[in-house]
Design goal:
By secondary structure, the chain is mostly helical. The chain has 13 helices and no strands. Helices cover about 60% and strands about 0% of the residues. α3 packs parallel to α6, α4 runs parallel beside α11 and α11 runs antiparallel to α12. The longest helix is centred in the last third of the chain and has 32 residues. It is elongated. It binds protoporphyrin IX containing FE. The site of protoporphyrin IX containing FE (HEM) has 24 residues, from α3, α11 and α12.
């Protein structure tokens, strides 16, 4: 038999949960009902975000990611980005609570705080955050993050047609790096050291970063179309999370000023600090060392990057 709308969504149970810990015993005000509902809304979105991030992570975690899988990975992240954009607006509903009216029930929270949101920590850990202010953030042992699998994937980028572990790959990669750094030096002699620092790292990092520079530089090559889309989506994903954190901090500043948080942190200062942290550090950093197309080293083995029919 087909379920009713309410049965399918389990609304009876869901709509009983906006009472605060004491259940029906304490009558909550309309303001507190609003406060609880907004939080629960966020937690429901978090649940979906976690599930989407896991899908992306799983797609990218295989040893060989087929080109046809990349649009799917991007699709899951696009959904997360839209959710974060929506959630950034959702603070406005919270802001209809007057600071003075919040004080009427703030004591009820005790030490409860978004700080303790398990789903928030799971999102961070899935993204790949490893610390915040020396405090964070248990990364689940043996669970790979989006950051981990992105690093592995970038390391396998074919560079000038040369694939990881193929014969002579190391020389080819070194040659590309030398050519790139020389080209960079020509137009940006003053900041060339930044590019040198970025690319002349230890061996594993070197190939990964060279792969990233390669994808960002030769964007017009057909085979790199989805990889570069994937990278810009990862950036947009992190950007949307940072903007969401920022708008939370501004809402909090408006609500409680410089008071300390119920979770015991310094409050707004702590929240602003979390907006400075980046998971995909290299994806942001590479932007400082890009060079314009006409100054790039010539592409080798161009055919390798054409679309190939069956
Ligand atoms: C009146 C509304 C709110 C105020 C005044 C407020 C205040 C704060 C403060 C001061 C912190 C820092 C930790 C602490 O010391 O407690 C914090 C953290 C947090 N809040 Fe809120 N918050 C509000 C609403 C919300 C809502 C609706 C959510 C949605 C779930 C939320 C999610 C979080 C999360 C996830 C953290 C942890 C951030 C991190 O550690 O990176 N907050 N909040």
């Amino acid at each position: 038999m087909s379920p009713t709308y309410s049965e399918y969504l389990r609304l009876e149970e869901l709509l009983k949960l906006q009472t605060g810990v004491e259940g029906e015993k304490r009558r909550i005000s309309n303001d507190e009902l609003h406060f609880i509902l907004v939080h629960q809304n966020f937690e429901l979105w978090f649940k979906l975000v976690i599930s989407e991030l896991k899908c992306t992570r799983d797609i990218l975690s295989s040893d060989y990611v087929e080109e046809t899988k990349l649009p799917e990975a991007v699709h899951h992240m696009d959904r997360v980005i839209e959710i974060f954009k929506l959630m950034s607006q959702q603070w406005r509903v919270m802001e209809t609570l007057e600071p003075q009216d919040f004080l009427n029930f703030r004591d009820e929270l005790g030490t409860a705080s978004g700080f303790e949101s398990i789903q928030m920590r799971e999102m961070e850990s899935l993204m790949g955050a490893k610390w915040i202010d020396g405090k964070l953030v248990g990364k689940q042992e043996n669970e790979k993050s989006l950051y981990d699998v992105t690093c592995d994937w970038l390391e396998r980028t074919p560079i000038q047609g040369s694939t990881l572990n193929s014969e002579n790959d190391e020389n080819q990669v070194n040659e590309f790096i030398e050519d790139y750094l020389a080209a960079h030096k020509k137009i940006y002699p003053d900041t060339n050291q930044d590019a040198v620092n970025f690319l002349e790292e230890n061996k594993a990092l070197r190939r990964r970063r060279a792969g990233l520079v390669f994808i960002e530089s030769y964007r017009e090559l057909p085979l790199l179309a989805w990889p570069r889309k994937l990278i810009s989506t990862l950036i947009e994903l992190e950007q949307s999370m940072i903007l969401w954190r920022t708008s939370h901090a501004r809402m909090v500043e408006r609500m409680i000023g410089r008071r300390i948080g119920t979770g015991g942190s310094s409050g707004v200062d702590y929240l602003d600090m979390t907006t400075k942290y980046r998971v995909f550090i290299d994806l942001w950093a590479v932007r400082s060392i890009l060079i314009k197309k006409e100054a790039l080293p010539a592409i080798k083995n161009k055919d390798f990057y054409e679309f190939r029919g069956e």
